[in-house]
Design a protein that fits this description.
Belongs to the UPF0260 family. A hairpin with a 4-residue loop joins strand 3 and strand 4. The chain is 24% helix and 13% strand. It starts with 5 loop residues before the first helix and ends in a 13-residue tail after the last strand. It has one domain. The protein has helices at 6-9, 17-23, 66-69, 80-83, 92-97, 107-110, 114-118; strands spanning 32-36, 43-49, 53-54, 59-60, 129-130. With 143 residues, the chain is α+β, with helices and mostly antiparallel strands. It has 7 helices and 5 strands. Strands 1-2-5 form a 3-stranded mixed β-sheet, with no helix packed on it.
């Protein structure tokens, strides 16, 4: 069972698997492709989704097997320091690691997953293209 406000009292490393999964807001942004400028290290976001991302729910369609199906899929829990560079500023994992509060729209605060979509944070509010339809990711960089 997940304790109320567990994220205020535990570090990411101290969280159980259930708590870790509950912290995810299901926005789907981590499943969009990013590009890194090799010279500056700057991260550019695209509107191109991993082929496993269900753009209607914002969830992975094969979460349990994602790393076997998508070779460059990164487990946030196992590679958090690496992933931190490209996680969106709204990501609950990033916020907790930085000692910041979760936003009011986060499901753990609001009590419903709908608020992520209503706040315009989820990929449901964006025009998303499947990676299967893209030749050059640079053509799909977004602000």
């Amino acid at each position: 069972m997940v304790m109320p406000s567990f994220w205020k009292h535990k570090t990411l490393n101290e969280m159980t698997n259930e708590e870790w999964e509950a912290l995810c807001d299901r926005c789907g942004q981590c499943c969009l492709h990013k590009l890194e400028d090799e010279d500056t290290g700057e991260i550019f976001y695209t509107n191109v989704a991993c082929r496993l991302l269900n753009i209607h729910s914002g969830r992975c369609s094969d979460y349990c097997h994602r790393a076997q199906v998508v070779k460059d899929c990164i487990s946030l829990r196992e590679n958090f320091n690496e992933a931190l560079r490209w996680l969106p500023k709204t990501c609950a994992y990033r916020l907790v690691s930085e000692g910041k509060e979760l936003f009011d729209w986060h499901p753990l605060i609001s009590g419903t997953e709908e608020t992520v979509h209503l706040a315009g944070i989820s990929i449901k509010s964006q025009i998303i293209v499947s990676e299967n339809e893209v030749d050059d990711l640079e053509d799909y960089i977004i602000e």
